[in-house]
């Protein structure tokens, strides 16, 4: 079932195709959408206590299901842990949750990754629906099937690919999202604009302040366009063997910054914003991005305020951090760069240019 309020985007993964439903104020349709896909006897909703009050109970009410219940996990990255995963399994076992049942992940990327991994592994796999509630999760993490938890030795090291039955993004839920979380999601949205969509870039140039202020119509439009981009990339590269690496635009620089500023509270999306500035600078230094393109990209990124201590930018240290990133293969660091909107290319990172690129952040 779809309504005129809902946009459907298909993720055409061979053998595991699924739709992404996006729209504003569509939560009340959840039960009907689910019934249009499949009937379940048992459904567990995994969410945070605050989200249970905000939307979890409402979601549960729409479900025409014999046994339905909510499993709560604490907020924060710390919940992507073995301990919390075990607690979820315990909750499911105690409820006599069976094969053929459904887990709904209702929350941001933390819930999506954790509940998704539980769905991939509990009784060797039960069904999953992603119901993302942060901008980052709606435009990025809920689509593509990557799930997992962290290990004390590193982030996202234990995981599985688990494609959902569908993704359900109610953009009205973003109304309560703190400004910092909107900023983070926007980092990923701008990434899609640079790597794939000139139209999205122009729209952002016209509306970025409205997006930052949480304008519902702007956010809805950005979610739809971004979800299309993410879907288009993952359907061509389900298991991340090639094309998906373009989603790392800004991220290779960003990961080094994330590691460097881990304790000063810079968030992932914010480091992506800074990382994209470096990537633009790098492409300009190669002579691939012209002066006008550089100025245009920088001007947009500058409009998203990211607070950090400029005196802590040490390009030589950041280059070393970049080289120990887990995505470094055979000693080479590969950068995704753009020479104009929608035109990306891959370049092996060179120390001198990388250091110059990081220096734009000083
Ligand atoms: N699987 C993937 O492909 C993928 C991609 C990118 C990121 N991730 C993962 O996603 C995680 C980050 O996700 P995130 O940025 O969504 O963070 P998050 O899940 O921690 O959510 C951020 C905060 O917002 C709160 N929140 C969520 N929805 C809300 C709402 N509607 N109103 C008010 N508050 C709300 C949460 O309780 C939380 O405190 C990381 O663990 C990252 O590794 C995964
Ligand atoms: Zn990201």
Averaged pLDDT, please?
94
**Percent range for β-strand residues:** 15-25%
Helix content: 40-55%
* End-to-end CA span: 51 Å
- Bound ligands, named by name, code or SMILES: nicotinamide-adenine-dinucleotide, zinc ion
- Number of distinct helices: 13
Any idea what the CATH superfamily of the largest domain is called? Dehydroquinate synthase-like - alpha domain
Task: Examine the coordinates and then state which fold CATH places here, giving the name of the CATH topology of the largest domain.
Answer: Dehydroquinate synthase-like, alpha domain
Strand arrangement in the largest pleated sheet:
1-2-9-6-5-3-4
CATH class of the largest domain: Mainly Alpha
Structural class: alpha/beta
Global morphology? globular
Low-confidence stretches: none
Main sheet specs: 7 strands, mixed
Number of strands: 11
Radius of gyration: 20 Å
Domains, number: 2
CATH architecture group name of the largest domain:
Up-down Bundle
What is the H-and-E element order? EEHEHEHEHEHEEEHHHHHHHEEH
Task: Describe what this molecule looks like in 3D.
46% of the residues lie in helices and 19% in strands. It has 362 residues and is an alpha/beta fold. It folds into two domains: 6-177, Rossmann fold, CATH 3.40.50.1970; 180-361, Dehydroquinate synthase-like - alpha domain (Dehydroquinate synthase-like, alpha domain, Up-down Bundle). The protein has a seven-stranded mixed sheet, with helices on both faces. A two-stranded antiparallel ribbon has the order 7-8. The radius of gyration is 20 Å and the shape is globular. It starts with 5 loop residues before the first strand and ends with a helix. The model has no long low-confidence stretch (mean pLDDT 94). It binds nicotinamide-adenine-dinucleotide (NAD) and zinc ion. Zinc ion (ZN) binds next to helix 10.
């Amino acid at each position: 079932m779809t309504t005129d309020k809902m946009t459907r985007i298909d993720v055409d993964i061979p053998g595991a195709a699924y739709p992404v439903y996006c729209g504003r104020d569509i939560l009340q349709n959840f039960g009907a959408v689910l019934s249009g896909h499949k009937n379940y006897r048992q459904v567990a909703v995994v969410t945070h206590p605050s989200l249970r009050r905000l939307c979890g109970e409402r979601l549960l009410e729409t479900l025409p299901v014999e046994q339905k219940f909510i499993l709560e996990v604490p907020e924060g990255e710390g919940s992507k842990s073995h301990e919390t995963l075990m607690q979820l399994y315990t909750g499911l076992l105690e409820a006599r949750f069976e094969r053929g049942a459904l887990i709904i992940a209702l929350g941001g990327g933390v819930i999506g990754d954790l509940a998704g991994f539980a769905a991939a592994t509990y009784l060797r796999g039960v069904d999953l629906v992603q119901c993302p509630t942060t901008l980052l999760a709606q435009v990025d993490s809920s689509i593509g099937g990557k799930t997992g938890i962290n290990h004390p030795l590193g982030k996202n090291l234990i995981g599985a690919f688990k494609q959902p039955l569908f993704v359900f993004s109610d953009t009205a839920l973003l109304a309560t999202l703190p400004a910092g979380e909107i900023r983070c999601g926007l980092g990923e949205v701008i990434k899609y604009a640079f790597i794939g969509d000139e139209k999205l870039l122009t729209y952002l140039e016209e509306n970025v302040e409205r997006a930052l202020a949480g304008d519902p119509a702007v956010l809805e439009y950005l979610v739809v366009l971004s979800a299309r981009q993410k879907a288009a990339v993952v359907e061509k590269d389900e298991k991340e063997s090639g094309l998906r690496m373009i989603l790392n635009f800004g991220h290779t620089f960003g990961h080094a910054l994330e590691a460097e500023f881990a304790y000063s509270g810079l968030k992932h999306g914010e480091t992506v914003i800074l990382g994209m500035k470096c990537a633009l600078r790098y492409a300009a230094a190669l002579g691939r991005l012209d002066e006008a393109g550089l100025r245009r990209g920088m001007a947009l990124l500058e409009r998203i305020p990211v607070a950090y201590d400029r005196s802590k930018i040490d390009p030589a240290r950041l280059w070393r951090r970049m080289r120990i990133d887990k995505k470094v293969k055979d000693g080479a660091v590969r950068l995704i760069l753009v020479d104009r909107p929608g035109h990306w290319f891959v370049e092996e990172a060179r120390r001198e240019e990388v250091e110059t690129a990081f220096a734009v952040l000083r």
